[in-house]
Specification:
Its EC number is 3.5.1.87. The chain is α/β, with parallel strands linked by helices and 424 residues long. It has two domains: 7-224 and 340-419, Zn peptidases (Aminopeptidase, 3-Layer(aba) Sandwich), CATH 3.40.630; 226-337, Alpha-Beta Plaits (2-Layer Sandwich). It has helices spanning 19-30, 47-63, 107-122, 149-154, 160-164, 174-184, 210-213, 252-266, 306-319, 344-356, 372-375, 402-420; strands spanning 66-69, 75-79, 89-93, 131-135, 189-190, 199-205, 218-224, 226-235, 239-240, 275-284, 290-291, 294-303, 323-324, 327-337, 340-341, 361-366, 381-386. The two termini are 25 Å apart. The model is unreliable at 1-11 (pLDDT under 50). Bound molecules: glyoxylic acid (GLV) and manganese (II) ion (2 copies).
């Protein structure tokens, strides 16, 4: 939906953000875990992730903000309000990246939120409510699946103990990686798990081509499509590659590729709305001259309609059972998050903020997943998207323009201030 052109008498509500500073911060974070191809590799709970969080905490400490951490490693940076008894207005996103990630996915929302806090300081503005910036732990889920782990645990959708026990491919679990990270960070106040606040607004790059194609300044996000994550395992038998006839093998990799073919065919969507991805496959023991004895792979499944998503999920579970080519198959559900519709009043506030700055905008449903889907279960939530070049994301070539980055942060600042005065 395109907004009507705002009347010229419409004046913006808030102070101007410092777009130069915001861009400098984006560039500084992009140097941490920088890859040769211009992207970043700052996966959750790695040394690079720790470096990124350390830098942000240094900036926060210069401003005197209060900092705390919860048991799953979500970080909170708080700018106090006049009335400490009131629940905070929240913003946030994530600093972790894909292994071949870009310079904007997640980190942009964190830095846009930080820019709001600093802008208020620059203008000597007190707010009634505290404002809190959250850095969610392990949004990407590339090293430790599933994605949005920190917000899922905070929302009570994933038990803490289950999350802490999840291992990466080298056998390191979240618990020990998190302990190592916390030991490296400055001392932080400990806070209990939980998800509460007056409102939550997250800024993010779109990660798709719609806003750029329609020459929009920002997107008003109305919801997030659903996501299921599954882990599938096939058990074969290791055998000698030179001596074992093909007919006598239980080759877990051959069985896995056959199964993936069946799955794709069984859930084929002629409308191409359903998203089915196998992005990680582990072959054991991973030796060129041993027939694979075990394969584990992950399925990422998404759809904006809850029933279609559930149906496809049931098909996956039905096919990933029994035996295939002599190899027993089992499936584990890692995550089942239903499509989310954001709070009407928060969405309207974000729309009004964009309109107040005479921006061109569009309502949009997010194809990517975000921690906002879990905040939405407990806190009135909305999101702001900014265009990214050719919609490229989860790719080192991911790019966004300084002017768009600034526009999104400005809308975030205006919307957060506006929402404070609303009786939600
Ligand atoms: C987020 O990283 C997603 O996978 O959508
Ligand atoms: Mn993201
Ligand atoms: Mn991502």
């Amino acid at each position: 939906m395109n907004a009507p052109t705002p009347p010229s008498s419409l004046t913006p509500v808030g102070p101007r953000i410092n777009s130069h500073r915001l861009w400098e911060h984006v560039c500084a974070m992009a140097r941490i875990g920088a890859t040769a191809k211009g992207g970043v590799n700052r996966q959750a709970l790695t040394a690079e992730d720790t470096q990124g969080k350390t830098l942000l905490l240094q900036w926060a400490s210069r401003r005197g903000y209060q900092t705390s951490i919860d048991p799953i490693g979500n970080l909170f940076i708080r700018r106090p309000g006049r009335n400490p008894g009131l629940s905070p207005v929240l913003t946030g996103s994530h600093l972790d990246s894909q292994p071949t990630g870009g310079r904007f996915d997640g980190v942009y929302g964190v830095l846009a939120g930080f820019e709001v806090l600093e802008t208020l300081d620059d203008h000597g503005m007190e707010t009634e409510r505290p404002i809190e910036l959250v850095v969610w732990m392990n949004e990407e889920g590339s090293r430790f699946p599933p994605p949005t782990m920190g917000s899922a645990v905070a929302a009570g959708a994933l038990p803490l103990a289950d999350a802490l026990a999840i291992k990466d491919v080298s056998g390191i679990d979240v618990e020990s990686a998190l302990k190592a990270q916390v030991a490296e960070l400055p001392v932080l106040e400990k806070r209990p798990l939980g998800m509460s606040g007056f409102a939550y607004i997250e800024a993010h790059i779109e990660q798709g081509p719609i806003l750029e194609n329609q020459a929009c300044d920002v997107g008003i996000v109305t919801g997030i499509q659903g996501l299921h994550a599954y882990e599938i395992q096939l058990l074969g038998a290791e055998a000698h590659a030179g001596t074992t006839p093909l007919r006598h093998r239980k080759d877990a990799l051959v069985a896995a590729t056959t199964l993936i073919g069946y799955l794709r065919a069984a859930i084929d969507d002629p409308e191409d709305i359903l998203r089915f991805t196998v992005g990680r496959l582990e072959v054991y023991p991973g030796s060129p001259n041993t027939v694979p004895g075990r394969v584990t792979f992950n399925i990422d499944l998404r759809h904006p309609d809850p029933d279609s998503l559930l149906r496809a999920g049931e098909t996956i579970l039905r096919l990933c059972a029994g035996e295939i080519e002599g190899c027993p198959v089992s499936a584990k559900v890692l995550l089942r998050s239903t499509p989310i519709t954001f709070d009407d009043r928060v969405v309207a506030t974000v729309r009004k903020a964009a309109s107040g700055r005479a921006m061109k905008f569009l309502d949009i449903v997010s194809g990517a997943t975000h921690d906002a889907k879990y905040t939405a279960q407990h806190i009135p939530t909305g999101m702001i998207f900014v265009p990214c070049e050719k919609g490229i994301s989860h790719n080192e070539a991911e790019n966004a323009r300084e002017v768009d980055v600034a526009a999104g942060a400005q809308v975030l600042c205006d919307a957060m201030l506006a929402i404070m005065s609303e009786p939600l």
